[in-house]
Design brief:
Immunoglobulin-like; 2 domains
Amino acid sequence: MPSAKTLSLVLSLLVLAVILSVAVWLQKAPSGDDNANDGDCVLDQSDCSFKLGKHSAVVSLSPRPIPIEEQIHFTFDIPDEYRLEEAHIEGVNMYMGRTIVFIDRQQLPLTGISFLGSCSEPSMQWKLSMVFSRDGNSFYRELYFNTTLGNTIL
């Protein structure tokens, strides 16, 4: 007959396996509308739409191709009941810190400007992170875009 110590170890491992399985399942489980982006839109190729609750929001940027070390313009067309709290850009394939998107809240749709720094990578992948709020709740969205050093005159 196995000792109490062995049974305790086996039971602990079984509980750990169940907890890890549930964590993996929850991570892969589809989320509700408030956490889902629509498709795999890439901002340097087209405007991108995504769900905010039961409504759609659209983000666009210009100019295209996206320049380095020059002003980039964003347009945020979001449902009236949502507020864009903040937006920033981060490098994906090379971390270059967070670059703030300065949002002009005096007109609708909202607009913003930002700048991208140059680096040693000739092709960069970027992530636009946005935080929206509604009724005291926050909603996080990410959109991606690419730049190529050859598209910019330095």
